[in-house]
Write a structure and sequence with these properties.
About 25% of the residues are buried. The protein is globular, with a radius of gyration of 14 Å. It has helices at about 10-20, 25-30, 40-50; strands at about 5-10, 20, 35, 55-60, 70, 90-95, 95-100, 100-105. It has a three-stranded antiparallel beta sheet with strand order 1-4-8. The model has no long low-confidence stretch (mean pLDDT about 90). The chain has one domain: ADP-ribosylation fold (Alpha-Beta Barrel). It is about 20% helix and about 25% strand. It is of the alpha+beta class. It contains three helices and eight strands, in the order E-H-E-H-E-H-E-E-E-E-E.
Length: about 120
């Protein structure tokens, strides 16, 4: 089993549960949903979501996804580019996230200074 992570809000997750699938605005605007590996998620959160409360991580089993997944060069939101290494690839989901592929919901609160650290539950 291979897992990836997706940062979202509790409200968006509640909406996904009501709809039966999870989507993001990037699916329409860029054609995919941004995800990260455990090694990447903190850098992404600190670049894109600094200080934002009420976030969770969706732990996704890539083998259960019904939409295609590709590991590709990062696509950055202007002004929020996380630091990356040369050749680093990020997981992108090209379609809706089916809820049965989500095998864990992990609280992802910011630290007092607004930065994020990797929750121990990510490795569980």
């Amino acid at each position: 089993m291979s897992t990836i992570l997706h940062i979202t809000s509790r409200a968006d997750w509640a909406d996904a549960q009501a709809k039966g699938f999870h989507v993001t605005p990037s699916l329409e605007s860029e054609g995919f949903i941004h995800c990260s590996t455990a090694a990447q998620v903190v850098r992404v959160a600190n670049s894109v979501f600094p200080g934002q409360a009420d976030l969770i991580l969706l732990k996704i089993d890539t083998e259960k996804l019904t939409a295609p997944i590709k590991f590709e060069a990062p696509v950055h939101i202007p002004g929020t580019a996380p630091k990356t290494t040369d050749g680093e690839l990020f997981p992108h989901i090209y379609g809706k996230i089916n809820l049965d592929a989500v095998i864990g919901i992990i609280d992802f609160p910011p630290n007092a200074d607004g930065t994020f650290t990797l929750p121990s539950a990510v490795d569980a």
